[in-house]
Amino acid sequence: MKNLNHLLFLVFLLGCEGQETIHLRKKVIKKIYPGVVEVIVPKQEDEDIVYQRPLPFDQQDFKDRFDKYHAIGTAFFINNTRLISAAHVFPADEFSVHKNYFIRTAEGEIFSLNQIYRYSSYRDVIEFDLKTYPKSIMALKLQPKVEIGDMVYTVGNAQGEGISTRGGQVSTFTAEPVAGEWQFIRFSSPASPGNSGGPLVNSRGEVVGIIVMKNNSENLNYALPVSEIKNASLEKAHFFQRQMKVQDGMQVKMRDWTFFTPLPTTYSSLNSLAAPEKDRFYSQLIEDFKKEYSDLIFPHNKRFRDALLYQKLFPRMSMVDKDKALHDWRVDPINLKKIIVSKENILYHSKGEVFNHYALFKTQKGISSGVLFANPRLILNRMLLASGANRYMVGQSIPILDNGEPDESFVWRDRLGRPWRTSFWITLYNNTLLASHCTPSPEGVYCFFDQTFASQRLEGYMTFVKENILEINLSYSGTPDQWIQYQTLDKELKPTLFSKLEITQKNDHLFFRLPQLSFKTPALKNHLQSRISALVNYDPSQNLGQQIQGWEILINRNKQQGLTFFKTYEVQELAPDNAIERWQEIKNKHSSYDGKIHPMNNQLVKKIPVTPMLKSSYLRGEESKEIDSQWWLSCYGPNTLKRKAIDTMCNSFKSGLSFN
Fold first, then answer.
1. What one-character DSSP code corresponds to residue 370?
2. Cα dihedral sign for 378, 380, 381, 383?
3. How many Å apart are CA 104 and CA 108, to the nearest integer?
4. HEC string of 108-142?
């Protein structure tokens, strides 16, 4: 009886030994762990960044304090020299601060990548070797046979905390989404960031798949079957990104990017070829989008062309906006909030959609707009202080005072004739890109800022900037002293609109001379309370051009006393009712356009024509025609001002205004 019981117990143990459970057996774990390694990149600190106080490295957890590397993924040996991982762990088609990749064993030994023998972002697999090797290597066995219901285990560097194992089941197989060339293994074993590239093993420790994707909506993850490794070429790296997209409203253009380049090669060589090629592809996609939808999008859309004839004029920033159906086109103001950081740091700021931040940096004592424009470091540091930029570490926000000199800075001119300085700061510690795009104005420097992943630096970014910046309209304002300083800027630092601007001063008057017109300002006794604005708008006579459509001269900003002269256009039949009614009032000199003084919003306002009705060119698609236009002068002041003073101001200014 004892012998029989002993035999039954042995049978039970053998049954348990072969049974699949949620936990991988200890002896299997010990067997495979030497074959699984972390993929790591060195931690990097930016020596040029200055913080308000020292970073609290000493308060970090032990591992963060002493580990000199970031663990970003997993790889595993398939023989004594080659390793397999996921291609996206080594993003060779992106710009990155990480130029060198390493693997780290369970014993903490670190080894450098040597050559890449397979690389397919389509299948998301990479095969590579090392410059030197660990003394002991355990190659994992590949097992192409796997079935629904099999217990499987993720082995990898979950959350960057070292190699761990977690169990689940094969739930189903699903076709890869592009062409259905293979079926992904979908499994319920937990997978976290860092597991990418690691092996999905069966209960015997054999690799059935490479972990490549996590499903964010449910607890099912994806692995590439090991049978697909051989279908990634040993001769050419295959780069692929599905449905790269350009969109404006409901207009969309998508195209798959594919690129091949010879193997074997080093990672740096692969990166130097693939990343610029992807950048060129996306830039071309933008150009093709513009051609395909030219008649619908800015600046050729006929509704937009019509809207140019009745849009309001704004003294600073404005932006082209439209509804999804592309019927209602507007140029709306960008409302800038004044931020006073100090007497030396005053700016106007707004958060944006096209760019993360819009700002106008005011000139300060001894620093003109030209000097500001030439000093992107100073501009960014002023923005950092104003926005409360900081680095978050161990529950603390440490303010950033200085980001150092840009890694790259260059000047270019957009198709509207405006000069820009673009500057890039690559932040090493978090692999991000800071970008500024700035242009001078009399009162300071307009700037747009972006902060994004460093990978965006080479994904059509500058093409995107150069196209979208055209839909931001800039007018130019300043005190009389700022305008006099502004005209001394080099021609290369001024928009084409002001290339022939001449300003002279006599007593309390300023004389402005441009090719189109000349005028003398009223007496500006207090320059600090006076402001002169060139009101810029898109030119309806060109497909893409600008014009100074008006000037605003505030004699006293506190009292809101001054004048505006502006060009009005005959509106078209699809214009809004209020625009049509306004044009009829102008044409017939009715309502507030009757040449009399009217009380309006606690002010006295007088509007008079300063030219007879003119003919102006109007371009709408391929059609060009002549439409009526006229220059008007509006003089205003507080309702406490004598009406005679309004009349005198209007008549005096009109007599000194001439059109060439």
1. H
2. positive
3. 6
4. CCEEEEEEEEEEECCCCEEEEEECCCCCCCCCCCE
**CA within 13 Å, CB half, 310:** 21
Which residues on adjacent β-strands are paired with residue 39?
73, 103
- Indicate the pairing of strand 432-441 with strand 472-474: unpaired
pLDDT digits (tens, 9 = 90+) for 526-572: 888 899 999 999 999 999 999 999 999 999 877 789 999 999 999 99
- Whether the Cβ atoms of residue 165 and residue 200 lie closer than 8 Å to each other: no
Extents of the domains making up the chain: 20-53+67-237, 297-312+475-660
Q: Enumerate the H helices of 222-322 as residue ranges.
A: 267-292, 302-307
Cα–Cα separations (whole angstroms), residue 2 to 5, 6, 11, 15: 5, 6, 14, 20
Query: Length of the chain, please?
Result: 660
Q: Indicate the DSSP class of residue 299.
A: T
pLDDT digits 0-9 by tens, 227-251: 999 999 999 999 999 999 999 989 9
Give the integer Cα–Cα distance in Å for 527 and 479.
6
Average pLDDT over residues 451-464: 89
Using CB atoms within 10 Å of the CB of residue 208, give its burial: 0 to 12 exposed, 13 to 18 middle, 19+ buried: buried
Whether the link from the prior residue into 495 is cis, omega within 30° of 0, is: no
Report how far residue 76's alpha carbon sits from residue 226's, in angstroms, rounded to the nearest whole number: 12
Contact present, 331 and 320 (Cβ < 8 Å): yes
The 3 state secondary structure assigned to 189-207 is: CCCCCCCCCCEEECCCCCE
3-state secondary structure of 341: strand
CB neighbours (10 Å) of residue 355?
Answer: 20
Cβ–Cβ under 8 Å, residues 348 and 339: yes
Alpha helices in 459-613, H assignment, sequence order:
461-468, 480-486, 577-588
200: which strand partners? Answer: 154, 209
Residue 395 DSSP symbol: T
Give the pair of three-digit tokens for residue 347.
């700016």
Helix, strand, or coil (residue 86):
coil
How open is the CA angle 561-565-469, to the nearest 5 degrees? 105
Q: CA dist 157 to 26, 67, 74, 140, 165, Å?
A: 18, 15, 6, 17, 9
Q: Which CATH number fits domain 20-53+67-237: 1.10.10.60, 2.40.10.120, 3.40.50.300, 1.10.510.10?
A: 2.40.10.120
Q: What is the DSSP letter of 209?
A: E
pTM, to two decimals: 0.91
* Spatial distance between the Cα atoms of 514 and 503, rounded to a whole number of angstroms: 9
Amino acid residing at 574: L
Both structure tokens of 534: 């060139």
CA–CA separation, 521 and 523 (whole Å) = 6
| Rounded Cα gap, residues 467 and 513, in angstroms | 32
Could you tell me the sign of the dihedral formed by the alpha carbons of 456, 452, 337, 480, in that order? negative
- Our CA angle for 91, 183, 187, nearest 5°, is 80
Q: What single DSSP character describes residue 523? A: P
